[in-house]
């Protein structure tokens, strides 16, 4: 049984915000309080639960199909150089 405080907290959670935060929960990138609030909302909101299920399946599929693959060393090196170059340009524009 939920308390009045829990019910008002459920009503405050915007479904679009919950769905946006689902990825954080799937990636274990949110704190326990946020995870608890999201799970409680998902338990009580059928449309969010359905969207969560879809996103969980998409994430799982991506992990299975792309997991463990790494970019070639040459590509990683070129990207690293380009990122450093871009940062240096941005810093010189600020100075």
Describe it for me?
Helix content is 81%, strand content 0%. With 95 residues, the chain is an all-alpha fold. It contains five helices and no strands. It has a domain of 66 residues. The radius of gyration is 20 Å and the shape is elongated.
Précis, in short:
It is built from five helices and no strands.
User: How far apart are the termini?
Assistant: 59 Å
Number of strands: 0
Rg over CA atoms: 20 Å
Number of helices: 5
Work out the oligomeric state of the chains in this entry. single chain
Features:
5 helices, elongated, mainly alpha
Topology record:
Blueprint: H1 4-12, H2 15-26, H3 32-44, H4 46-66, H5 73-94
């Amino acid at each position: 049984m939920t308390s009045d405080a829990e019910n008002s907290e459920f009503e405050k959670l915007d479904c679009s915000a919950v769905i946006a935060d689902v990825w954080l929960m799937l990636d274990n990138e949110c704190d326990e309080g946020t995870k608890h609030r999201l799970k409680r909302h998902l338990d009580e909101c059928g449309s969010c639960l359905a969207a969560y299920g879809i996103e969980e399946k998409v994430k799982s599929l991506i992990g299975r199909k792309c997991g463990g693959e790494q970019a070639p060393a040459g590509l990683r090196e070129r990207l690293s150089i380009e990122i450093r170059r871009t940062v240096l340009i941005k810093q010189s524009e600020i100075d």
